[in-house]
Amino acid sequence: MNQWLLYGVLALLPLAALSGFLMGRKHRKGKQDNRLSSDYIKGLNYLLNEQPDKAVDTFIDLLKVDTDTVETHLALGNLFRKRGEVDRSIRLHQNLIARPQLSSRDRNSALFQLGLDYNAVGMYDRSEKLFKELLSDPVHKNESLVQLLNIHQLTRDWDDATKIAEELQSSLGVEQSKPIAHFYCELAAQKRQDGDIKAALSNVKKALTINPDSVRASLLQGDIHLQQKSYKQAIKSYQRILQQDIAFLPEALPNIAEAYSNIKDNSGYRSFLNKSLDAGAGVSVLVELSKIIQAEKDDRAAAELIGNFLKERPSLKGLQRLITLHIEHAQDSAKPSLQLLDDIVEKLISKKPRYACHNCGFETKAIYWQCPSCKEWSSVKPIKGIEGE
Description:
Elements: H1 3-28, H2 34-48, H3 52-62, H4 70-82, H5 86-97, H6 104-120, H7 124-133, H8 141-154, H9 158-172, H10 177-193, H11 197-210, H12 215-227, H13 231-239, H14 241-244, H15 249-262, H16 266-278, H17 283-296, H18 299-312, H19 316-327, H20 335-351, E1 355-357, E2 363-364, E3 380-382
Antiparallel strand pairs: 1-2, 1-3
Helix pairs in contact: 1-2, 1-3, 2-3, 4-5, 4-6, 5-6, 6-7, 7-8, 8-9, 9-10, 10-11, 10-12, 11-12, 12-13, 12-15, 13-15, 16-17, 17-18, 18-19, 19-20
């Protein structure tokens, strides 16, 4: 017998023991069933002959569905699902539901487990139907709402996700403003892609009403206004990020610069950058401001600005900008060394992640509004410090 088969047989022994126990109890009550006895022996023979699949089915059949064994069936189904044997779990739960003598409470428990089975194999239409049916059951309502919310997010059905999240918030009192705002942003992005700008802006407005601190909504609103050449409105939307979460400001900087450029307000852009730095913005804003000072004054003034900043807040990105400013004015003998240092810092920056999830620690170079690892909304944020902003 190979190692894995041995493990499988050992795992079935508790089930065999339980079947034997139930059979023995019936015998003590004077209800001995010869067929039950022969089937139990048959199950043991399957175990001994290294046929665990047949043994499982035999022992399950021996567990007559009644108030004493429903929990055992549900536990077995849960075990099968966790082991990846979802087909067997589905069959077991379907068998339970088909029993006419099952109480409504036990039937609903089996329905919920069957819904989890369907989720595990991606049969979301079937699981959605079951969980909707269970919304009328006070015992399973909240759990079913959670499962429905997960399904709608996985299938990107943002309208239904919004409705379920609102019902979940009302039912459980669990704050859902952040995910609901993201659902409206998802709808806005879809409408924008379809060319329905009015509907897109309407959904963004709903997102900001639900969660005034939604950086994503401000970015999206600013992008739409910029696309529509409503530059002042775009700037107004982007500026909101300073109060919402200034760490995300670098995401908007190129578009902010474009908006100010289109209204020919260079002094306004410079004033905005200075205001942002005073409010605690990171090195990306500093680099932008240094470019303006370099153009208006000279490299020395830009380098002085960067240097003063780095004394208080060391940054690889700031260091690279400082090296770039010094290369042009360095002696010929020093230029190769400075260029090498610049290349090294550039490689360090390019290899480092820019964002991290504050919930699970997931790191990435691209921004995600929902963490791909833990599925939490608004948990992925720009990294701060010497390797970030």
